[in-house]
Amino acid sequence: MKKFLYLILLLPLFFFFASPTQAATIFSDDFTATDGTELQTYNSDYEYPYSGILHINNNHLDSGNYFGPSNVTLGDYCASFDFVPHDNNGLIVVRANMGTDQGYYGQLHASGNYELRRWGDILDSGNVSLSEGAHNIKLCADGSDLTFYIDGNLTASAEDSTWSSGKTYFYNDNGYYDNIFTTYYSDNVLIEDLPESTVILASPSTGTKTVGSPFTVNVSVAGDEAFNAARATVEVSENLTVNSISNPTSNACNLHYTTTPTKENPSFAGGIFGDSSEDCTVYSMVVTPNAEGTGTITFTNGSVKAYDDNGELLTGATNASFTLTDGPTPTPTAMLEFSVTSPIETYLENFTITGTKLSTITSIFINGEDTDSTYPTDTTWEVPVTLNLGENNFTIYGSDGTNQTATQTVTVDRHTLGDINGDGEIDLIDASLFAIDWDKTEGLTYILSDMNGDNSVDLTDLSILAKLQ
Q1: Alpha-carbon distances of 38 from 70, 133, 179, rounded to whole Å
Q2: 290 versus 395: which is more confidently predicted?
Q3: How many domains is the chain partitioned into structurally?
Q4: Neighbouring residues of 466: CB distance < 8 A, sequence distance ≥ 6
Q5: CA 49, 53, 58: angle at the middle one, nearest 5?
Q6: Percent of the chain having pLDDT more than 70?
Q7: pLDDT-based confidence at 220, cuts 50/70/90?
Q8: Three-state SS for 353?
Q9: Is the pLDDT of residue 227 over 80?
Q10: pTM of the entire structure?
Q11: Domain extent for 453
């Protein structure tokens, strides 16, 4: 039991003490000379596209001027620096031709307002809460994808292909303040290769859909880097109705959720305990357009943590935008309003899948058969099934005798008793998950913490788990 406690106490460290993912450095300057002495007022590594003299004092760059490396012209790269916000702002320009005022800008104001710009045009914007002291801003250009980070957090993104290459410049608009250079400064200039791309995306992300006709959207983490934790706030526009959310039938990320996606809130957060994944599907959701217009699925507050060092991998997000058009009304059954009221993870070999339906649907077919389907009411149904260990996939559709509804797939995962995370072993990881739900009678984070199915995680369940170790 002491080992259980140690693991439970250490587990949060995997989520809160992360180190950044590194990329190859192209140019850097911390404004400290190699011999340890302070740099003077001029540094030949830089050029000055506007009037003014580059001042370097106390190993910090004085504010009030654009400045940039004189010999660096690039297409795809990231640029960052530290600055102390005061009365105005700090900004980075990438792919720049300052002689014609062209380039992409990442800009942070002392108020916390930020913008991602194509020169004068705002591509994305928002606000963050800023503490006192220095803050890091980073702007990345990867083909037509632009991403802007504040203190390591992705805050803005856009697509634009106006400029494909150019120079980088930095600016801290704080003035000189009577030659007091130690309070308002710029520091730690860095230009680096793009890190490996990891994005949270919706697939498909575009297309024309008909009002009343359901379709499936997969939410995925795409990239070549192994990860073991991910999260995102997922928002679906009001003209799209989420009918169901299910685990994918193949290539699943296998997250154990701390925030479980639901029809009401498809946001997610979770970890992959004792393993990792890459380029995988988090979940699938069936959505139905309910009005004409533009239907959107957007991701914010995203994060993906590296398996090897817990560093941040996320470089962007691919949102979905669909054109929704009005079509002929499907008759007589447009869709199967399907829900699983039993848990989709179980220890049981004999399991009953239950759900709801339109009253006009007279038969529910599972894997092509309706022999065992029963209907407690005209809007509910249930089907007993036998489960093998592991994932069991069931294809479900409804019929009114003439017309067939859209097909949906649900996965029921049968675990060995005590194997809460389904990795085939009953070990300290399962004990740590069990401890999260200890003494609960509802709202379990891990439904399989309830070993005997009495809707309570208590000493009886602990006795069962301990015997299985």
Answers
A1: 21, 22, 16
A2: 290
A3: 4
A4: none
A5: 125
A6: 81
A7: very high
A8: strand
A9: yes
A10: 0.45
A11: 428-468
